[in-house]
Write a structure and sequence with these properties.
There is one protein chain. This protein is about 0% helix and about 50% strand. With about 230 residues, it is an all-beta fold.
């Protein structure tokens, strides 16, 4: 059974309008993984901002992993076996796709193994070798400072039609919504406990970022508008 977990994301930078392909978030920390947790996943997305349908290849680099643990990548096509080191996939223009990294703590030993891992995944545009994005996934590693939280706050409903709410929004002061190209399309200052209306935004995927009154980022979420 998968445990409840908390993503912590270090140095989560704003989506650059110049970047063609990005991984969001680019760095994910997942801690408090126990030996019997089994399948534990760190979630992220690849964003295609090239303006065209694009083919990619991802390559996995296991920087370190405890003996007895296995790791595997899930992309937009499928969840691959731990033995798969790279694979190709495609994304339509201005879309995003899954790029999750899993660790398996009791696949080799049914009793489970205490451990840790660092996995790096590099995504390269097959039509432009200079268009490269790198995601790094830390499992049971100490958080760096300053630490950022991904998906720490829940937004609902998601997908949304006209408005969404934020669960646990007591400390949220400012909300920023970015489209898939990295353009800031909505900013809400002095947010209270109400809803955010997105009726005027087009259908698609957006990044919602939330900040407190000390300008610390509290959460980064993918929002789908239908």
């Amino acid at each position: 059974m998968r445990k409840l977990y908390l993503f912590a994301v270090a140095a989560l930078s704003a989506i650059s309008g110049y970047a063609q392909t990005t991984i969001e978030p680019p760095t994910v920390y997942l801690n408090d993984i126990g030996p019997m947790d089994g399948d534990v996943a760190a979630y992220s997305f690849v964003l295609n901002q090239t303006g065209d349908s694009t083919g990619y290849i991802w390559e996995r680099n296991i920087i370190e992993i405890t003996e007895g643990w296995l790791t595997a990548v899930c992309d937009v096509v499928t969840c691959h076996f731990p033995t798969v080191e790279s694979s190709t996939f495609g994304l339509k223009a201005d879309s995003l796709g899954t790029l999750d990294v899993h660790v398996y703590t009791n696949y080799v030993d049914p009793n489970g193994v205490d451990g840790a891992a660092i996995v790096e995944v590099t995504v390269t545009n097959l039509s432009d070798e200079d268009d490269v994005a790198v995601g790094t996934y830390y499992f049971n590693q100490a958080l760096s400072t300053p630490e950022r939280i991904s998906n720490a706050l829940k937004i609902y409903p998601n997908p949304v039609v006209s408005e969404f709410f934020i669960e646990g929004a007591d400390d949220v002061q400012r909300i920023e919504i970015y489209d898939i190209s990295g353009k800031l399309v909505r900013e809400v200052q002095s947010f209270g406990q109400g809803s955010i209306n997105v009726d005027d935004l087009g259908n698609g995927n957006y990044i919602v970022r939330m900040w407190n009154d000390s300008n610390k980022q509290l959460s980064s979420n993918v929002l789908t508008i239908q």
